[in-house]
Amino acid sequence: MKWLVDNNVLFPAINSAHADHGAMRAWLNREKKAGWGVTVETFLGVVRKLMNPALMNDSPMKAREAVDTVRHELAGAHPGTIIIGRQPDDAILKKAQGHRQIMDFYLVQVARDIGAKLATCDKGIIAAFPSTAVFPS
What CATH class has 3-134? Predict the structure, then answer.
C-alpha cells in the first residue's frame, strides 16, 4: 500500500459539490492504482460529513446512503483497504499542539507503520511530518 488517505482528501473526492472535488477526485483516481486505504476513523469521519446538513448544503445523506457511498469508493476498480486501529504512539501524539491534531497525528503513525504516505490537505501535518505526510497534487 502506498497511500493512507485522510478524510480531507476522501470527502472532497466523493462530494461533487465540494470546492476541491475536481482536484481530489483526479488525484485519487490517478493514485489509487498504487494501493490505498483509510483508517476506520477516516471511514467514519467521511460518513459523518456526508450526513452533516451544514457540509452537504442542506442535502445530507441518510446513514445507509452515506455508508454505501464510502463502501462503493473503497470497492472501486482499485479496491481500498480499511486499516484497523493500532495502539497510539506517545512520541508522535505528544507533538500535537492542540486537540485538533490528535487524530491527524495518529494517521501519521498508521501511515508510517504500514509503510505508506499520508495524503492530506492539512498543512500543519505536512510541516510536522514532511517525510510521511504529502499534499495530494
Answer: alpha beta
